[in-house]
Design brief:
Elements (H helix, E strand, L loop, with lengths): L1 H9 L1 H17 L5 H6 L5 H10 L6 H13 L13 H36 L4 H15 L2 H15 L15 H35 L2 H8 L4 H30 L2 H6 L5 H10 L3 H29 L1 H5 L1
Length: about 325
């Protein structure tokens, strides 16, 4: 097991290095010259040259990359070209918002997806199975921005139950904070719930066909006792590791949802940076998001090794 963990850990460094190169090169493909944007309309050649020198834009690309990645390794993500603030401070301000949204969305996904998958597998081939599968397909097919707009119209405009947009930090007012994030969290968790439902159903069907399940049935145990006590623990092994990856997807895929509900998180930060051509912020946010996803992938591998005795013993 230690050999497997060491092998997976050794893959993190080259993976993150490749990610940093891709992030840097993709940033170079974005249109517009940052020096021209920062210099303003009444710009002079001297001002443009000074800005390019300050941002290292007048150096070759390899030199620019080494300068940037060297600062990143020291914990310096640079400064926002538009706001003139440290990017690390901006990320530290926005990350808790997206984390709260992601945790709530993941809770919705778990509460909906896993029970639905269990019920669909236990009632395989019945109207309940077909109905749950249809709902799962609808969840996968429904765009987040459309579902968010529909919820705002129904829950906020017509019923007046929840605020349509905005965000209140947990430390300020936890009730209002939950009220402002429950709808966007449900929108984000909806698609993840559909994914978890489909995988839980498939894993449960495979587990219910195993010999130990048939033995439990032969002993006279009730149907749901066999499903929940014998089949479910083994069926959830791949689902648990999938959940770690899907949580990373929540953190990186909340852009449209945060825009619809005006949530000042990671998604809104990167959208505002793109619109304002603040490429330093875009570069850093994408790098942090990609790094988080790689680390969550590593955590999922460790969790799978922990839960699967066959891999651990091998």
């Amino acid at each position: 097991m230690r050999t497997r963990i060491a092998a997976r850990a050794a893959q993190i460094v080259p993976t993150l290095l490749l990610v940093s190169v891709l992030v840097f090169l993709l940033q170079q493909l974005m249109p517009g010259d940052p020096a021209l944007i920062l210099a303003g309309e009444d710009r002079s050649p001297e001002a443009i040259a000074q800005i390019r020198a300050e941002l290292w834009l007048d150096r070759p690309l390899p030199v620019q990359y080494l300068h940037w990645i060297g600062n990143v390794l020291q914990g310096d993500l640079g400064r926002s070209w538009r706001l003139r603030e440290p990017i690390a401070a901006l990320i530290a301000e926005k990350l808790p918002v997206t984390l709260q949204l992601g945790v709530m969305a993941f809770a919705f996904a778990l509460a909906i997806g896993i029970p639905a998958g269990i019920i669909a597998a236990a009632r395989r081939g019945t109207a309940v199975d077909y109905g749950v599968s249809a709902l799962g397909l609808a969840g996968l097919s429904t765009p987040n921005f459309w579902l968010g707009i529909m919820l705002i119209l129904l829950v906020s405009v017509h019923l007046g139950w929840l605020p349509p947009s905005g965000y209140v930090p947990l430390a300020v007012d936890w009730r209002q904070s939950l009220a402002t994030t429950v709808m966007p969290a449900f929108v984000l968790g909806n698609a993840i719930a559909a994914v978890l439902m489909r995988h839980t159903r498939s894993a449960m069907i495979a587990a219910l066909g195993q010999d130990y399940v048939r033995t439990a049935r032969a002993k006279g145990l009730s149907r749901w006792s066999v499903v929940l006590r014998h089949a479910l623990p083994n069926a959830l092994i791949p689902v648990v590791t999938l959940g770690a990856l899907e949580f990373g997807t929540l953190l990186s895929g909340a852009v449209l949802t945060e825009q619809v509900f005006t949530i000042p998180g990671f998604g809104k930060l990167i959208v505002d940076a793109v619109f304002n051509r603040d490429y330093a912020v875009v570069q850093s946010v994408v790098l942090v998001t990609a790094t988080t996803y790689v680390l969550l992938n590593f955590a999922a591998d460790l969790l799978y090794l922990r839960l699967n005795p066959r891999l651990r013993d091998g």
